[in-house]
Amino acid sequence: MFDMVSGMFCFVTAMVSFLYGTRICWVCGKRCSFEVSPAERKRILKSNMPSGFAVYLFGFFVVFSTILNGILTIIITSLISAFLLSHFVISMAMPTLKRNPSSHTD
Questions:
Q1: What is the pLDDT confidence band of residue 103, given thresholds at 50, 70 and 90?
Q2: Where are the chain's structural domains?
């Protein structure tokens, strides 16, 4: 019974961590547009990206600690996954990087 409840808490903790990490990174990416000066974009990225990375890192640490063995493996895998996911979400949310299909008149 205790194993089932602890597994459920780990799952809920990881999912909430991924949701909040995505929200932080998505808002950070949405605020970076070409209308904003490059200095302001750097400030936005420097202020929001580490927090999104930290939230993702915690979620991946919880997930990988239940799946993998070895603390070094868990830490390295969590660091790489959090880094890649935070940068991916920010880049997907940036309005200037979205593909705008041109209108063709056939």
A1: low
A2: 2-95
